[in-house]
Design a protein that fits this description.
Keywords: Signal. Residues 1-32 form the signal peptide. This is DUF4440 domain-containing protein. By secondary structure, this protein is of the alpha+beta class. The chain folds into two domains: 3-169, Nuclear Transport Factor 2, Chain: A, CATH 3.10.450.50; 183-287, Nuclear Transport Factor 2, Chain: A (Roll). It has helices at 25-32, 39-56, 59-66, 81-85, 183-197, 222-227, and strands at 3-6, 14-19, 67-74, 78-80, 94-98, 102-105, 111-122, 125-137, 143-148, 154-156, 165-169, 206-214, 218-221, 235-245, 251-260, 267-276, 279-287. The strands form two sheets. Strands 1, 2, 3, 4, 5, 6, 7, 8, 9, 10 and 11 form an eleven-stranded mixed beta sheet that branches. The protein has a six-stranded mixed beta sheet with strand order 13-12-17-16-15-14. Helix 2 (39-56) packs antiparallel against helix 3. The longest helix has 18 residues, at 39-56.
Length: 288
């Protein structure tokens, strides 16, 4: 089994860590398939198996193997992942490596996410980026990725370091079971404010342990993101493509597109939301 230790941070942002530096690959495969395992441990083991399969059987086959039946890729419009990936073949000489650094899980154990650094090698060239993967548990108990949409790779002089453990974020509080979910209102309100004032308002909506994922900067925690200067993009339209909410109504993802003023090309967004006592709070915001 994986080695689990308490995570002690100055602000108590994480509940514990899961170390996979001592987790053999064969154990990761076994844990990913173990129905009785803790949901977050099993999701992380599935992520590790996914990353290992990218080396073992190839990038495109690994993405197909670990996709949920209703998995989505944004290229840039949302499309069924298995259809998009059906004809994909790997570019010769390209190698993709990644490890999760942070994970979150719903109280109902059916929806979670992982994020962490990745590195892409093509010949002598190396590029680095950050992943953001939304995971869903199927009726058969298996985890598959619903949405895999990280930051675009940036050319680098050296490959990014990969973590040896993943920090697990605290869980939220069950939300009211209403349809449509209240997270739709939260996402719409944030989009309206972004259109009115620009993307610089987003960090102010983050939970205390939240963070943004941005090109050139990677993962930026709330305090640093709020203080950032020059990151305000003016938005003309914001379109939500879809969402997924946990059965406990405590964790959700929304995703869509932001269209910017002027010549700036449009970009997709992916958000992770957590329901707390005060309502839905933004936990992760990616613009790519």
């Amino acid at each position: 089994m994986a080695h689990v230790t308490p995570f002690r941070s100055g602000v108590g942002l994480f509940t514990r860590t899961l170390s996979f530096s001592v987790l053999p690959l064969v154990v990761a495969y076994a844990l990913a398939a173990e129905p009785g395992a803790d949901p977050v441990d099993r999701m992380i083991a599935t992520e590790l198996s996914f990353a290992a399969d990218a080396q073992r059987i190839g990038i495109a086959p690994a993405f197909r193997r670990h996709a949920a039946p209703d998995g989505i890729l944004m290229r840039p419009d949302p499309a069924p992942a298995l259809e998009v990936l059906q004809g994909n073949v790997d570019t010769p000489g390209v190698r993709l490596e990644w490890k999760p650094a942070i994970a979150g899980m719903s109280l109902s154990g059916d929806l979670g996410f992982t994020t962490g650094p990745y590195r892409l090698f093509q010949g002598a060239e190396v590029m680095n980026g950050d992943t953001l993967t939304v995971w869903v548990r199927g009726a058969d108990g298996r985890w598959g990725w619903l949405l895999d949409h990280g930051l675009l790779p940036i050319k680098a002089s050296a490959p990014a370091g990969l973590p040896g453990e993943v920090a697990i974020m605290r869980q939220g509080q069950p939300g009211p079971r209403r349809r449509p979910s209240g997270v739709i209102d939260a996402d719409a309100a944030l989009n309206a404010e972004v259109i009115a004032q620009g993307t610089a308002v987003i960090p102010g909506h983050l939970a205390d342990d939240g963070f943004v994922l941005r090109l050139q900067r990677g993962r930026v925690p709330k305090a640093a993101a709020v203080d950032a200067v020059g990151d305000n993009l003016r938005v003309s339209t914001a379109q939500r493509f879809g969402m997924r909410v946990s059965r406990a109504e405590d964790l959700a993802t929304t995703y869509g597109r932001l269209t910017f003023d002027g010549a700036q090309p449009s970009r997709n967004y992916v958000r992770i939301w957590r329901h707390d006592v005060s309502g839905w709070q933004l936990l992760v915001d990616l613009i790519n």
